[in-house]
Design brief:
Length: 271
Amino acid sequence: MTNVELGLPALPAPPYPEEVRARLAADAAELIGRYPQARSALLPLLHLVQAEEGFVSATGIRFCAEQLDLTTAEVTAVATFYTMYRRRPAGKYHVGVCTNTLCAVLGGDRIFEELQEHLGIRNNETTEDGTVSIEHIECNAACDYAPVVMVNWEFFDDQTPQSARKLVDDLRAGREVRPTRGARLCGFKETARILAGFPDERPGANDESGAGGAPSLAGLRLARGEALPGTPGTRVVSPRHEEPRHEEPRVEEPRHEEPRHEEPGQEGTEA
Ligand code: FES
C-alpha cells in the first residue's frame, strides 16, 4: 500500500512540560479575554504555539483545543487551512517566494528554483543549520513590486535570482539585511508572537512600517484624475470636480462583408 503524507500531526500528542504549559496558558488567557467568545481566539492561539516551537505541532494543537474547549479535529481543520501555520519547523528566517501569476512571469519561478538549488533544500524544508527555510507562496498583494520575496513576512521587492541568493547568504552569515519596506527583521518565532497579538517590543519597530509606495498608489492617483510622475498630461479619468468631456456618440459603420462562399451541396448545413 502506498503511504501518502498528509502533514497531519500524529495523535495522541504529549502535553507541553508543565512550566511551558503554565506560561502559555497565561498568554492564552490574555488573548482569549479580548474576544466575546473564547473560540474566536483560535487564530491568535495558533500563532502563540507557533511562536513556541516554530510550527504548529500536535502538542500545540492539543493545547489550543484544551484552552478553547474545542476538539483537536476542529483545531487541526483550522491549522491546516491557513498556510501561515506551518506543519514543519521553520528556520530562523522563513523565506517565502511568491510564485503566483505576476511574480512567476517576472521571475518568481526562477528565483525559487535558484534558492532550492543554492540551499540544497526543497519546498518547505530547512537548511541543516536551521537558519533558512523556503516555501513557495501565493500572491502577497504586492504585485506592484513583483517579483516579491518575503522573509518572516517582511517584503523584499523587485527581486532577481542573484539578489535572492545574496539575501539568503547574508541571512545565513548573520549579516544584517533590511526589508525594502516595513520593520527590520526578527526571528520567525518572535514574528509569530507579534502576530499572536503581543506588542512588538523592539524600539522604533512600529514606526518603521511605513506607508504605501508610489507603485502601490498609482491606481489611486489615476482614479483621482492625477497624472503620474513621468507621464505629464496623461490622465485616464477626469477629476471629480470637472465636468466630463462631451463627446458625440460614435456611430459604428457596418463592416463590409464578403459574401460567404459555400461549396455546392453545403447550403443550410450550419447549426
Ligand atoms: S503575484 Fe506575487 S505578490 Fe501578487
